[in-house]
Amino acid sequence: MGQFQLYFQLGIQHILDLDGFDHILFVVALCAIYILRDWKKIIILVTAFTVGHSLTLALATLNLVKVDTNLVEFLIPVTIGITALSNILKPKPSTGKSLQINYLFALFFGLIHGLGFSNYLRSLLGKESSLFEPLLAFNLGLEVGQLVIVAIFMTLAGILNGIVGVNRRDWALVISSIVMGMSIMMMLDTKFW
User: Fold this and answer.
1) CA–CA gap between residue 74 and residue 187 (Å, rounded)
2) How far is CA 48 from the centre of its chain?
3) Do the beta carbons of residue 68 and residue 163 sit within 8 Å?
4) Rounded to a whole number, what is the largest CA-CA distance in the chain?
5) Which residues cross the membrane (predicted)?
6) Do residues 50 and 109 make contact, with C-beta atoms less than 8 angstroms apart?
7) Phi and psi at residue 174, in whole multiples of 5°?
8) Within the chain, where are the H helices?
9) For the chain, first and last CA: distance in Å?
10) Other CB atoms closer than 10 Å to residue 31's CB: what's the count?
11) 126 phi/psi in degrees, rounded to 5
12) For residues 69 and 35, what is the distance between their CA atoms, to the nearest angstrom?
């Protein structure tokens, strides 16, 4: 197996790992207010998140940025909670203005999530002679993993909204409330306190 394929698969596995479900929760919170026909918006949103975390992941992996791990582990669930709360407070599904806020959330919060990945990736890279290919492969794997989460979640949402008849706003409120509750529990479990 080549180096690119190895790090690509590690990126996918890292995102889809249920032991580290914080990333899954964030992607679900980002998608909760959308429906299947919004797939282009969702892909842009997820890619904005990838751009944000790719930047800080690279900077932190190269030791150009250092942030206290406990602070990052606290801020990650904070980003999830803010995203979920934003969904709860929206009076109706995504509009042009709220869509722009979602892109900013995804990009900015991606910066924070990237810091969380950096220790993991730095330990994997060890003494690799070149970091460009592993970083690229890992980030592409993360993006593919996120798209898998989006596909599963949006298919479920489509079935419940379109076939079963669950109200779109109710769906967004319930999912966002669950995610927010889980993010609060994650915040309380961190070593930041």
Assistant:
1) 6
2) 10
3) no
4) 55
5) 20-36, 43-65, 71-89, 101-121, 144-164, 171-188
6) no
7) -65, -50
8) 3-16, 22-31, 39-61, 69-89, 96-125, 132-158, 168-189
9) 43
10) 24
11) 55, -115
12) 35
Q: How does pLDDT run along the chain (193 residues), one tens digit per residue?
A: 788 999 999 999 988 988 878 989 999 999 999 988 889 999 999 999 999 989 998 888 888 888 898 999 999 999 999 999 999 998 665 555 656 778 888 999 999 998 987 877 777 776 666 788 888 999 999 999 999 999 999 999 999 988 899 999 999 999 999 999 999 999 999 987 6
> Six-digit token pair at 101?
């806020």
Burial class (CB in 10 A: 0-12, 13-18, 19+), 53: buried
Q: Which residues have C-beta within 8 Å of that of residue 187, sequence separation ≥ 6?
A: 74, 77, 78, 81
Collect all residues with Cβ–Cβ distance below 8 Å to 153 and sequence separation of at least 6. 27, 28, 31
Q: Output the pTM of the full model.
A: 0.90
